[in-house]
Design goal:
The complex is a heterodimer of chains A (336) and B (350). Chain A has one domain: Rossmann fold (3-Layer(aba) Sandwich), CATH 3.40.50. Chain A has 10 helices and 12 strands. In chain A, the strands form 2 sheets. Chain A has an 8-stranded mixed beta sheet, with helices on both faces. In chain A, strands 2-1-4-5 form a 4-stranded antiparallel beta sheet. Chain A is globular and about 65 Å long. In chain A, strand 1 and strand 2 form a beta hairpin. Helices cover 28% and strands 25% of the residues of chain A. Chain B has 2 domains: 54 residues, no CATH class; 211 residues, MetI-like fold (Orthogonal Bundle), CATH 1.10.3720. Helix content of chain B is 65%, strand content 3%. Chain B is elongated. The chains are: A alpha/beta (336), B mainly alpha (350). At the A-B interface, strand 6 and helix 4 of A face helix 1, helix 12 and helix 13 of B.
Chain lengths: 336, 350
């Protein structure tokens, strides 16, 4: 199992300091990600779910180490160990200069297909940019590769000379996928790749991504908030709540036998296309998600948890393996 | 294939096509550009030196090779040969010597020291816009001043833009302490009374074309930094920048290949107005007497001399109308550019 791992995230934390006052003193910290651990195997799809603002996207961006560009003073702790074929690299410790040669190994597909393609570049320029950076292909080879990639993602190679604004949302997302695949990466981080698309297009894009995953032997970290989508494509599911990992395990186990009370509530909210089951037990959580500026003590979920006990406020629950390959951060449900 | 290219126009091309439909701005653009290009050929169009002189079987090219004393061509004048008189003389004598004068055979520098030139000559067929207080041809000076004004404004605006984009862009892109430091620098810098600074510097050092540009650039680069900082700040958080970074593009490439083309709108729309500002800046400095050293032809200096000799109407009329026409055409261009770049028209692309 361990030699089959591609990424091993251990105790990853991402904190954004908040400055204020006359002397820009540090007044608070946004704990966007607060010590999470999970791993992605080779050729595996890991789905990551959670509410808006729980830190899913931040995890994805931390894993390709581009957080520092937008917020230079971000604090990243823990380790993100990549087990490439030839070497083991910890992305959390690399400077952006050292990162450069590993950039081709991990790519990203973005949520908003309108913002993620530079409107001033043609499709050919967009897709060939990673080729220019990471391969020694000449112009002709690049053109061929771009045409081939466009064909793979279901577009016509002749469309390479068009600009992004001439495409629909689904087509643009296909361009984004082609760009991510251009350098044959080991891992693609898919940051809600279908949430900006129509439902009918969502299915097409997801099926395309699954086909390409097999063809290119690539791993996905599939960030989404649609549980049914994630269950459909993932090998493993990670559930996040307010910067913490609530549950991580095989997709089937997490989806059908959730252990953490938050996962249970989340799964009971999945709409079922079956009217006869409309009276099933829905767990409705009370209240709002607390702010990551001032998280509750102990378990972050205790303020809304249906099974919370006074002891939950004392210490942060240990994220441990409760059943085989099934990690849960809740001592209450242990042994249940 | 051509049909394919027709569909896939870049945004810039679309905007250029839109600009072409705005006739007033487009024709102003054509006129200003052609006049400016033409003004680089002024030495062969408006000059008192002959283009070609054939004297005793030998060819001379005074426009290109410069000074020839009058005695070279057996002319009895002090100093340089007067080619207009030479032409008339050889014509009258029906001699074998001949010369070819430029279409308008007066220079902006020749004054009453040259025989035949008079002060305050009213506009006529020889002097289209008359002569000034030292007998210099007003039309010739006007044309040379046009070239200097536009060159000054173009170089000044480009330099301001270059510095403004580099510093403002880096401020917006890198943010943090770099941004904070330069914000304070700019605040201090912009609180200096700049006209006084320029006047003080010009009264100490004798100004020249490039020194004036240098001084004005030191003062004026600030304006562009605000715009560029805001543009880069907004663009850097977009996903296409994250995509470029995640594939390992360098900061320099991300700034200038990815962000800058998307931050071109304020650059291009403000450029004509920056040029207007540059022209007026030079005129006002010259008018106050702190600009280009005399006898450089300049609209400000002509205006100054004209106002102190106001009954000679042509000396005021000429520089004022030249400025008026030039500035209004540049403003027309600016308006048309602004309309062509109106984001509402291509709102899907923004």
């Amino acid at each position: 199992m361990s030699n089959n791992k591609l990424v091993d995230v251990k105790n990853l934390s991402v904190h954004f300091p908040v400055h204020g006052g006359v002397f820009s003193k540090r007044v608070a910290t946004v704990k966007a990600v607060d010590g999470i651990s999970f791993s992605i195997g080779k050729k595996q799809i890991v789905g990551m779910v959670g509410e808006s603002g729980c830190g899913k996207t931040t995890v994805g961006r931390a894993m390709i180490n581009i957080l520092r560009h937008v917020s230079p003073d971000v604090e990243i702790g823990g380790s993100i160990e990549y087990h490439f074929d030839d070497e083991i690299v910890d992305f959390a410790k690399l400077s952006s200069g050292e990162m450069r040669k590993y950039r081709s190994r991990v790519q990203m597909i973005f949520q908003d297909p309108y913002a993620s393609l530079n409107p001033r570049m043609t499709v050919a320029q967009i897709i060939s940019e990673p080729l220019q950076l990471h391969t020694k292909m000449n112009a002709q080879e690049q053109r061929e590769r771009v045409g081939w990639l466009l064909d793979k993602v279901g577009l016509q190679p002749e469309q390479a000379r068009r600009f992004p604004h001439e495409f629909s949302g689904g087509q643009r997302q296909r361009i984004g996928i082609a760009r991510a695949l251009a350098t044959n990466p080991d891992l693609i981080i898919c940051d809600e790749p279908v949430s900006a698309l129509d439902v009918s297009i969502q299915a097409q894009v997801i099926n395309l991504m699954m086909d390409l995953q097999e063809e290119f032997n690539v791993s996905y970290l599939f960030i989404a908030h649609d549980l049914s989508v994630v269950e459909h494509i993932s090998d493993k599911i990670a559930v996040m709540y307010l910067g913490d990992m609530a549950e991580f395990g095989n997709a089937h186990d997490v989806y059908h036998h959730p252990r953490h009370p938050y996962s249970k509530a989340l799964l009971s909210a999945v709409p079922l296309p079956d009217p006869s089951r409309k009276n099933r037990d829905r767990i409705v959580l009370k209240g709002d998600v607390p702010t990551p500026l001032n998280k509750p003590s102990g378990c972050a979920f205790r303020t809304r948890c249906p099974v919370a006990e006074p002891s939950c406020a004392e210490s942060k629950p240990v994220f441990e393996q409760q059943v085989k390959d099934h990690f849960v951060a809740c001592p209450i449900v242990k042994g249940a | 294939m051509s049909e394919q290219q027709e569909i896939s126009l870049s945004i810039l091309k679309k905007r250029w096509l839109k600009f072409k439909t705005l006739k007033r701005g487009y024709y102003s653009f054509i006129i200003i550009i052609s006049l400016y290009v033409l003004s680089w050929f002024l030495p062969v169009l408006i000059n008192n030196r002959a283009l070609v002189v054939s004297y005793e079987g030998e060819l001379y090219f005074p426009v290109f090779s410069g000074y020839y004393a009058g005695s070279t061509f057996d002319q009895d004048v002090p100093g340089e040969a007067v080619y207009r008189q030479l032409d008339a003389k050889w014509e009258a004598e029906d001699s074998d010597n001949w010369l070819l004068l430029p279409p308008y055979p007066y220079s902006p520098y020749e004054d009453i020291t040259v025989t035949g030139n008079k002060m305050f000559d009213a506009p006529s067929r020889t002097h289209w816009l008359g002569t000034d207080n030292t007998g210099r041809d007003v039309f010739a000076r006007l044309c040379y001043a046009f070239n200097i004004s536009i060159s000054f404004a173009l170089i000044l605006s480009s330099l301001n833009y270059l510095i403004g984009i580099l510093i403002g862009g880096s401020m917006g892109y890198f943010g943090g302490k770099f941004d904070l430091f330069f914000q304070r620098v700019i605040e201090i810098w912009s609180s200096l009374p700049m006209l006084f600074v320029i006047i003080i510097i010009s009264s100490i050092i004798r100004p020249s074309f490039f020194l004036l540009i240098f001084i004005y650039t030191i003062v004026n680069w600030i304006g562009m930094t605000y715009l560029m900082r805001a543009e880069f700040y907004r663009e850097k958080s977009k996903d296409y920048v994250a995509a470029a970074l995640s594939m390992g593009q360098t900061n320099f490439k991300v700034m200038f290949k990815h962000i800058l083309p998307n931050a071109m709108v304020p650059i291009i729309t403000f450029f004509p107005f920056a040029v207007v500002g540059g022209i007026t800046a030079l005129v006002s400095l010259d008018y106050l007497g702190f600009g280009m050293p005399p006898p450089t032809p300049s609209w400000g200096q002509m205006l100054d001399v004209g106002l102190s000799n106001i009954p000679k109407w042509w000396m005021v009329f000429a520089p004022v109308s030249a400025q008026f026409v030039t500035l209004i055409m540049v403003v027309f261009i600016g308006e048309a550019v602004r309309e062509a770049f109106d984001p509402k028209v291509y709102s899907r692309l923004r």
